[in-house]
């Protein structure tokens, strides 16, 4: 299991990482329309064709293709060809070009990464470590307390007493969006998180960072004053390891 020293080394590298690749990608996003198309693809939750993007943006297919290919050149998007759903075999026509977000991370946080938050939680865990409480356990406790503190402040600001499940899900989703989790609703009774704000740290030490992440979200729910929504730790390809689900 990676120890906290190795995690902090990784954390330091992330905070001091060079910005050459990110700067080139950011330059592509200077164009307002291109930035809009990138966000359309990013938020779709599935691969989109040029026609899909053009339709949502209200522009021509040709113009959409030009900007999408520029985003692909800078590795902000990746593209592949496939037959549209329901069309296969002879006479099905040409394959369509599909676009989806790449794994490229930018130092301007697209998608947003919150290594600053992870750093604060890890520092708190190390300070709280004792012979009776290992640092990994302390990390979960500190994260849960931090989430509860955030939830408590939001509850006070919004004057929530005991919010029902739907209000709690909606409020938690709004708060988590501010923290870079990119929440979406796969079903009426749940909120999934498309982005992990601690992604690279989680890849190095999932048994610590994912537990800490889960504890933070669970603490947020408890701070909001709702006991009918649970933070469930489950792995979905491409998503954060936590889902909010009505009990």
How would you describe the shape? elongated
Helical coverage, percent range: 40-55%
- Proportion of residues in extended strands: 5-15%
> Strand tally, please?
7
The parts where pLDDT drops under 50 for at least 5 residues are 14-21
SS field, number of helical segments? 10
For the CA atoms, what is the radius of gyration? Answer: 20 Å
Would you tell me the overall average pLDDT?
80
Structural class: alpha+beta
If strands are numbered along the chain, what order do they take across the biggest sheet?
Answer: 4-5-7-6
Order of helices and strands: HHHEHHEEHHHEEHHEE
Biggest sheet record: 4 strands, antiparallel
> For the terminal residues, how far apart are their CA atoms?
32 Å
What does the secondary structure layout of this molecule look like, with pairings?
Blueprint: H1 4-15, H2 20-28, H3 32-44, E1 48-49, H4 50-57, H5 61-73, E2 77-82, E3 96-101, H6 115-128, H7 135-157, H8 165-178, E4 183-187, E5 190-193, H9 199-204, H10 206-224, E6 229-233, E7 242-246
Walkthrough of the structure:
With about 250 residues, the protein is an alpha+beta fold. Helix content is about 55%, strand content about 15%. The protein is built from ten helices and seven strands. Strands 4-5-7-6 form a four-stranded antiparallel sheet, with helices on one face. Strands 1-3-2 form a three-stranded antiparallel sheet. Strand 4 and strand 5 form a beta hairpin. Helix 3 crosses helix 5 and helix 7 packs parallel to helix 10 (about 205-225). The longest helix is centred in the middle third of the chain and has 23 residues, at about 135-155. Residues about 15-20 have low confidence and may be disordered.
